[in-house]
Specification:
The protein has helices at 3-10, 12-27, and strands spanning 45-49, 53-55, 60-67, 78-84, 90-98, 112-119, 122-128, 137-146, 155-165, 171-175, 177-181, 187-189, 194-200, 205-213, 219-226, 231-235, 240-242, 247-254, 261-270, 277-287, 290-301, 304-315, 317-325, 333-334, 345-350, 357-367, 372-382, 391-392, 404-410, 415-421, 427-435, 439-445, 458-466, 469-477. It is mainly β and 479 residues long. It folds into 4 domains: 3-34 and 42-181, Immunoglobulin-like; 187-287, Immunoglobulins (Immunoglobulin-like), CATH 2.60.40; 290-382, Immunoglobulins (Immunoglobulin-like), CATH 2.60.40.10; 391-477, Macroglobulin (MG2) domain (Immunoglobulin-like), CATH 2.60.40. It is rod-shaped. Residues 1-18 and 24-43 have low confidence and may be disordered.
């Protein structure tokens, strides 16, 4: 004998529930009313519905009683309820209840079910279990036959009466239905599975699902919900009723919160008896890399190109790839063999062979999943000529931390000085003093004064002095 059977027959709770069931079925004594006081507080509210259904005269139909939302964790061990109908229009068949494929059809829960007619128009159902009910969906199917004498357009109310969970705790909310003689509605979806693709973390992508009623009577959509907080149904609000031949649109968003492949499900319930519960798999990829680029520049100095960029934010990020081309919109080739990392301030020296003209650079960020995204674009003009006068080029990078490069050009070999001054005009560091080489000269400054002290953030000035005059420029140090 299986363990659950032993548990079932040895559980005092189970036997007490069985006694209540017998009293309910034989004596007409119902469960405690859901509005009555109980010794325990209500945990939540369960929702039970019987849908609006259609069938033709002489048809046999299975009317579902549906638990609309997941009741897992509500500690439901017993259920009782009546279904009231018009016996002149529909009547119970010999196979009164079909439970296959329902939440109560689970051997582990060991559900004990009793049903019987307690009046000509009332069908009573009682369940009990030793383990709590879980999930949502059709709780049971009640099989009816439509009278062959029924006329198109005739209706029978379907009332759910005296329904209770656990003798009243948690509370239960019921939604009655209507049976109508006529052709049933049919649901058709624009998609039965949807992939959102790659979406940045914190951003949202929208998908519009179209629901069409291809049947002959009203299609009722009772619920539409997702099983993951990263997928959300925005609009419209449900329930919704769709006329025959009409379509409604609903918007479902995907907002990833992790750098990963994310899966979920969109679940809807309706009154198409062939598709009571529809499950639409959803999927998407959260793209974790987020790079905020402050600057991206390229400068040509001393027959070399220095590419500089500064970031203010990097998350879920592995590194950068630099691409170069002689065209602004094609033929970009990577120029670094390994990912460039370690910011937020970057300097890359491109000393590979190149001819005169404009060179274009593209900066791409690579996230921890290997996804690549272009985050920057710049260009620089390459030339080959001897300067005719001395000049001081803008430092790079600028702003900088902790080091920057300063290039000056001289048309002849002569004595020059290159110094850094603060905003008060005080010289704080002499970077170069002596005979400069012909053409291009490059020196570096590490943000220290002449005594090796670390200087604070701020504006500093670089001055070049020679026999041909004085040149100066402004630099920004960011700590």
């Amino acid at each position: 004998m299986r363990d659950w059977k032993i548990k079932m027959f040895m559980t005092r709770r189970f036997w007490s529930i069985c006694m209540l069931i017998m009293c309910s079925m034989c004596c007409g004594w119902g469960w405690q009313d859901s509005n009555a006081d109980t010794s325990e507080s209500v945990v939540d509210t369960g929702k039970v519905r019987i849908p609006n259904v259609w069938a033709m005269p002489g048809d046999t139909i299975e009317l579902p009683i549906i638990i609309l939302y997941d009741v897992t964790g509500l500690d439901i061990f017993s259920i009782t309820g009546d279904l009231t109908f018009d016996p002149s229009l529909i009547s119970l068949t010999g196979d009164t209840v079909i439970t296959e494929g329902t939440p109560s059809d689970n051997e582990v829960w060991a559900w004990f079910f009793i049903s019987a007619m307690v009046d000509t128009n009332t069908f009573r159902m009682v369940w009990a279990a030793v383990e709590s009910l879980e999930g949502s969906g059709p709780l049971v199917y009640v099989q009816f036959r439509v009278s062959p004498m029924a006329q198109l357009g005739e209706v029978s109310p379907l009332w759910l009466e005296s329904w209770n969970f656990n003798e009243g705790d948690p509370a239960i909310e019921v939604f009655d239905g209507v049976f109508s003689v006529g052709q049933p509605p049919r649901i058709e979806l624009s998609e039965t599975i949807h992939e959102y693709g790659t979406v940045d973390i914190g951003q949202s992508a929208e998908w519009i699902l179209r629901i069409t009623n291809v049947g002959d009577n009203f299609l009722d959509i009772y619920t539409m919900e997702t099983d993951s907080v990263q997928f959300e149904v925005l609009e419209p609000f449900f329930p919704q009723s769709i006329n025959a031949g009409n379509t409604i649109e609903t918007t479902v968003t995907f907002t990833p919160d992790s750098n990963d492949s994310i899966e979920g499900n969109l679940r809807l319930s309706c009154n198409d008896l062939d598709n009571l519960i529809l499950n639409i798999p959803l999927g998407g990829i959260g793209r974790g890399t987020h790079v905020q680029l402050l600057s991206f520049t390229a400068q040509f100095h001393d027959d070399k190109i220095f590419i500089n960029w500064i970031t203010s934010e990097e998350s879920c990020h592995l590194g950068f790839i630099l691409y170069r081309s002689c065209f602004p919109d094609k033929d970009f080739k990577p120029i670094n063999t390994e990912l460039i990392a370690g910011g937020p301030s970057y300097v890359f020296l491109d000393d590979s062979p190149k001819g005169e003209g404009i060179h274009y650079y593209k900066l791409s960020s690579v996230d921890v999943n290997g996804y690549e995204e272009t985050v920057g674009f710049t260009s620089v003009k390459v030339f080959s000529m001897t300067p005719t006068t001395h000049s001081l080029l803008q430092n790079y990078p600028n702003p900088f931390n902790p080091i920057t490069y300063i290039t000056f050009e001289a048309p002849k070999e002569e004595y020059v000085t290159l110094s850094v001054y603060n905003c008060l005009g005080q010289e704080i560091r002499k970077l170069f003093e002596g005979h400069a080489d012909l053409n291009h000269n490059t020196v570096s400054w590490d943000g220290l004064d002449s005594k090796g002290n670390i200087l604070p953030s701020g504006i500093y000035f670089c001055r070049l002095q020679s026999s041909m005059g004085i040149r100066s420029m402004r630099m920004m140090l960011l700590r």
